[in-house]
Structures are given as C-alpha cells and as structure tokens.
UniProtKB/TrEMBL annotation:
It is a multi-pass membrane protein. The keyword Membrane applies. This is Aquaporin. Signal peptide: none annotated. The chain crosses the membrane at residues 28-49, 91-111, 177-198, 210-232, 252-269.
Length: 290
C-alpha cells in the first residue's frame, strides 16, 4: 500500500501537467526517452551535489562526500544500462558506457567511483591505510545507496521496466559461472583496466581516453553474461549483495578478492611493461645506457 501511494504521488505525469498544462496522452514515455531522462537525472544530481559539497563543505569532508556521490552515480548508471542492453543489444550498451564514462571524467572533479582506486593509491603510497579504508567504506555505502537512488527515479514510472523494478522484492545474482572462474574473470578485467589506465598509448589525450574507456566498455559487453562484469566492488555490492544464487562468501571472493588481486598484479606488471608514447625515443635510449 505504501509503495502504491509513493508511486502515485511521484510519477512523471503530474509533473508533465504542471510544466505544460496538459495531461500526457500516453501512459509511458518511449523506452529511449525513459533511459535518457533516467541518465540525465542521475548525471545532473551527482554534478550539482558535488559542486555544492565543494563549495559548502570543508575540503577534507568534501573529498569523501564527492567519492560517495561519484560512486553512487556510476552504480546508478548500470541499473539503466541493464535495460539498454535488454532493449537495444550490446552495441548500444557499449555506446552508453563510453558516453557515461566520458561525461564522468569531466564532472567527477577528481573524485573516485571504485574502491580499487583506493587500493591503487595505497600501493602507490599516495594515501595512507586509514584513508584507504575510509574511502573503501564510503564507496561501499554509496554502492548500496545507489539502489535507493535508482528506485527513487523508477518511482517516476516513466517506462514499464522502471515500474517492474520499482515493485520487485528480490533479485538474482549475475554470477553465472563457477566461483573460481568468476573470480578469475573479475581479476582479469580489473588487471587489464588498471594496467591500461597507467599507460599513455596515444599522444592525443582524448583518443587515449577513448581507448581506455572503450576497453572497459568492451570487457563489460563481452563478460556481462558471466559475472555481470563489474570490476568495481562497490557497484557489485550495491547490485548483487544478498541476491539469490550466491552466498555472501561467494560475493566477497568474486567481486572483492578478484578485483583487488587484479589491481595488485597490474601494478607489478606495469614494472615489467610500461607504455608512454609521449616520451621521445632518444631520452629512453639515454636512460637505458645510464
């Protein structure tokens, strides 16, 4: 009963009537329109709240708040990405992820959306262990909060898929392979994403960014049917923790141990193979002689 009252009071239809003075003809928006509005609300909410936090809050507090908001925003994207994948297929999922990540890179203002980055910063001695743990804890809470945010947007009742998800009371895990294979997939994806992120493969910074973002999007498209291909522990926790088909221990091994081990291996592999095309060959040769 309570859910029905909330849905009735918050749908897009009264908002449309207040804005345009007419009752909408259709019960729902088009699927494309629903996805675009969901993503626009998500992007603008995170962007505005991060700006406010930087203006109002102390820098130390603002850093954690911005991490929370960035993580919640990124996790919220992927609730809608599941609809995009089911409606339009892998090509449009790829396009959506690339666009989302390019926008995020320009609106996060240095905030982190993945606990793996806290581990990376700790290993690189950029932050201490206490700060790393705090960041991971904040991002994990943000992953869990992302479901509440998504549900709030679903309550606008823009498309039938949103209505169905709003009323769902249970979920099923995305882990469709064995435990060790699943951990290996998340490990390999994180290893690849982290290592490539440490390289400079093109002199043009935008093309370099597109290659890295495209690599992540391609891995998600290829591996979505195996583990969901999250390589983000906070996102996996927000989407899957407590879902049927996997125990909490399974979840921890696949979606936390796998990515963290993958990050550490990437750091070690970077010592063996590091690419930076911006460095001139003569300088590299001189270094080898020394």
């Amino acid at each position: 009963m309570e859910a029905n009252v909330v849905m009735a009071n918050m749908t897009w239809r009264p908002l449309w009537q207040m804005a345009f003075g007419t009752v909408p003809v259709e019960e729902f928006l088009s699927p494309m329109g629903g996805s675009l509005l969901y993503l626009t609300i998500t992007i603008l909410s995170g962007f505005i709240l991060r700006i406010l936090s930087k203006v109002i809050l102390h820098p130390v507090i603002s850093e954690y708040v911005c991490d929370f908001l960035a993580t919640m925003e990124m996790c919220a994207y992927f609730y809608e990405n599941n609809f995009i994948f089911s409606r339009y297929g892998p090509v449009w999922l790829f396009v959506a992820i690339v666009i989302e990540c390019v926008i995020a890179n320009r609106t996060y203002f240095g905030a982190s959306e993945n606990p793996v980055k806290a581990l990376y910063s700790l290993c690189m001695k950029e932050i201490g262990p206490v700060k790393a743990v705090l960041k991971i804890a904040v991002q994990t809470l943000a992953g869990l909060a992302s479901y509440r945010f998504a549900r709030f947007v679903w309550s606008l009742d823009m498309v039938p898929d949103h209505r169905q998800r709003y009323y769902e009371t249970s979920c099923v895990t995305d882990l469709n392979v064995t435990l060790l294979f699943g951990m290996g997939i998340e490990l390999a994806a994180t290893l690849t994403d982290t290592w490539l992120g440490m390289q400079t493969v093109m002199k043009n910074s935008f093309i370099d960014e597109l290659i890295k973002v495209g690599n992540g999007a391609l891995m998600i498209v290829i591996g979505i049917s195996t583990t969901g291909m999250y390589f983000n522990p906070a996102m996996a926790t927000g989407h899957l923790l407590g879902c049927k088909g996997a125990t909490n221990q399974d979840h921890l091994i696949v979606y936390w141990v796998g990515p963290f081990v993958g990050c550490i291996i990437a750091l070690l592999f970077d010592r063996v193979l590091h690419i930076d095309v911006t460095k001139s060959k003569p300088v590299a040769a001189d270094k080898k002689k020394k």
